[in-house]
């Protein structure tokens, strides 16, 4: 029992650490366009994103419940707390590696792949809740393509609406609007991303026999929202450079189009209780906006590198989590 309590405490600590790292790792996604167009200075943008992330994180719990029960059944998982601890260590390691190299990788892919990999290492492929797991994978895989399409359509619409407007005045107006769209972006980021840590802690509490349903406790909601907000306040300036400048040259009108496109998709996913990668959605929306502006203006080489990271994150994090579980299992 002492070991079980200790493992559960470690899961809570590592889940909050994951949320904290997720905050500074993904801050760039919410504010990259507003910083790159100079609508907001970096420090102001980061503080605003931290506040809006916290507000968004504490408002919803549907995605947390999906993480709790849709990947594996926490009530049927043997050594559940050890499985979740291994998954968190793997996801944190991958997040830190990609952050160090300035690659906008997906925290969502990392944690979902890690949970699946650690659970398979512990109990075989039969432990996966295939219906729920496939639904989550579909959301993760389809959302970037939807974001490209919505970004393309949004920018095409803006081009028609503002065709005869003075370019200088239009950019100045959109730069002001970007303050609002960046805040909206950060809020929607919080509604989806922070809930993943909430779901993981709830999953661990169930596996440890300390909770009998999938309701997210108030202290879990507050702790995860706070960790996400504090992490966001640190910021991820390396990734801001990649998302905000290396995919395409962003003007204020492009930033507003990208922000509105990605925020609508992320919030839509939150409302139907599906986790999506905010990194994927935002980067893809920027690509769609860029393609509508000028296909050759998108730096597709950088985009290909980002897409490659998206593809490899799930299998790498799953394999890493499986190996970490087997290693931990030798000692615990």
Automatic annotation (TrEMBL):
Membrane association type: Multi-pass membrane protein
Molecular-function GO term, any one: phosphate transmembrane transporter activity
Domain of life where this protein originates: Bacteria
Subcellular localization(s) per the UniProt record: Membrane
Main location: membrane
Key words of the record: Membrane, Transmembrane, Transmembrane helix, Transport
Record has Protein transport as a keyword: no
One Gene Ontology term from the biological process aspect of the record: phosphate ion transmembrane transport
Membrane-crossing residue ranges in chain numbering: 46-68, 80-102, 108-128, 140-162, 219-240, 252-272, 307-328
GO cellular component: membrane
Annotated protein name in UniProt: Inorganic phosphate transporter
């Amino acid at each position: 029992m002492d070991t079980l309590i200790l493992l559960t405490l470690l899961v809570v600590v590592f889940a909050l650490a994951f949320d904290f790292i997720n905050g500074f790792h993904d801050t760039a996604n919410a504010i990259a366009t507003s910083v790159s167009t100079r609508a907001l200075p970096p420090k102001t943008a980061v503080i605003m994103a931290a506040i809006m992330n916290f507000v968004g994180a504490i408002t919803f719990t549907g995605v947390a419940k999906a993480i709790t029960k849709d990947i594996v059944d926490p009530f049927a998982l043997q050594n559940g707390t050890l499985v979740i601890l291994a998954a968190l260590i793997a996801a944190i390691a991958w997040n830190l590696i990609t952050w160090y190299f300035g690659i906008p990788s997906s925290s969502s892919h990392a944690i979902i792949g890690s949970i699946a990999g650690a659970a398979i290492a512990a109990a075989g492929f039969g432990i996966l809740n295939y219906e729920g797991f496939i639904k989550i994978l579909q959301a993760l895989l389809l959302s970037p393509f939807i974001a490209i399409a919505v970004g393309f359509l949004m920018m095409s619409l803006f081009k028609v609406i503002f065709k005869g407007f003075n370019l200088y005045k239009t950019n100045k107006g959109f730069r002001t609007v970007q303050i609002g769209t960046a805040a909206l972006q950060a809020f929607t980021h919080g509604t989806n991303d922070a809930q993943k840590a909430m779901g993981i802690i709830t999953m661990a509490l169930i596996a440890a026999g300390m909770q009998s349903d999938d309701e997210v406790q108030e202290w879990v909601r507050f702790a995860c929202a706070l960790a996400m907000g504090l992490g966001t306040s640190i910021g991820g300036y390396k990734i801001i450079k990649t998302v905000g400048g290396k995919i395409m040259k962003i003007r204020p009108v492009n930033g507003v189009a990208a922000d509105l496109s990605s925020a609508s998709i992320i919030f839509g996913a939150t409302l139907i209780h599906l986790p999506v990668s905010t990194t994927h959605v935002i980067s893809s929306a920027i690509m769609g906006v860029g393609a509508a502006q000028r296909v050759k203006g998108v730096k597709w080489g950088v985009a290909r590198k980002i897409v490659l990271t998206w593809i490899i994150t799930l299998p790498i994090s799953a394999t890493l989590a499986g190996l970490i579980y087997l290693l931990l299992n030798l000692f615990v």
